[in-house]
Amino acid sequence: SIQQAIHTKRFWLLAATYFLFNLCAYSVITHIYPHAVDLGIPAATATNFLATIGGASIIARVVMGSAGDRIGNKLSVIIGLSVMSAALFWLLAIKELWMFYLFAVIFGIAYGSLAIMNSMMAAALFGMRAHGVIVGMFGFSFQLGGAVGPLLAGRIFDITGSYYSAFLVSGALGVVGLILGLLLKPAGKKSMA
User: Fold this and answer.
1) Residue 33 contacts by C-beta under 8 Å, 6 or more apart in sequence?
2) What does each C-alpha distance from 117 to 64, 133, 187 come to in angstroms?
3) Residue 82 has pLDDT above 50, yes or no
4) What local confidence, expressed as pLDDT, does residue 117 receive?
5) Phi, psi (deg, nearest 5) at residue 8
6) Is the dihedral of CA 126, 178, 99, 160 positive or negative?
7) Which parts of the chain are beta strand (E)?
8) Angle at 25 between CA 24 and CA 27, to 5 degrees
9) Cα separation of 184 and 173, whole Å?
10) Which of 6, 12, 14, 7 is nearest to 124 (CA)?
């Protein structure tokens, strides 16, 4: 039940993992355009990065949703968090147009693979008895991360005048999310597959 789930460490680890994932994701999605324009990328071109992230995300949802059935949900989440964190640190060094496009593809794949796993992770950790309400509860933390991330990145930009520190913080928080994801354990003897 939801009452049982919210009294477990697993629930709060999953909620924190997805809070940090969405914080990182929406920091980039919101600020990639102005960051690129600040680096001299034409505005009309910089908008393409968002479309590229979205397109890669759609493909990743299909591929990683299927892969999660074969390699396990937890491993799929760990792969997504690892790729996203690495991409965020790489974003700090990107200066050229082709690098932005490659980043957008890699980041979109990570974003899509993580987004598709939320319901499956909840099922693997808590079963199906109260699946909808459990997904809704930890989904709140997911959306909260999406609200906090852009504000945090924007505030850091306002203070420093650069997106470097904002993306550095996002990368570090992505690593924290990865560590929390590694700590997730199924209930009893249930498989994470």
Assistant:
1) 43, 46, 47, 49, 50
2) 8, 16, 18
3) yes
4) 78
5) -110, 150
6) positive
7) none
8) 65
9) 17
10) 14
State the Cα angle at 109 between 186 and 91, rounded to 5°: 110
98 burial (CB, 10 Å; 0-12 / 13-18 / 19+) is exposed
Q: What is the pLDDT of residues 91-134, one digit of tens each?
A: 998 988 999 999 999 999 998 888 877 777 777 777 778 788 88
Q: Is the pLDDT of residue 193 over 60?
A: no
Both tokens of 58, joined, read 């759609």
Pseudo-torsion of CA 191, 82, 156, 34, nearest 10°? -120
Phi, psi of 185 (to 5 degrees): -130, 140
Distances (CA, A) of 81 to 1, 24, 38, 147, 161: 28, 10, 27, 19, 28
pLDDT at 187: 56
Q: What is the pLDDT of residues 136-180, one digit of tens each?
A: 887 888 889 889 999 999 999 999 998 999 999 999 998 998 888
What is the pLDDT at residue 67? 77
Q: Tell me the C-alpha distance between 88 and 5, whole Å.
A: 32
Q: Enumerate residues 6+ apart whose C-beta is below 8 A from 179.
A: none
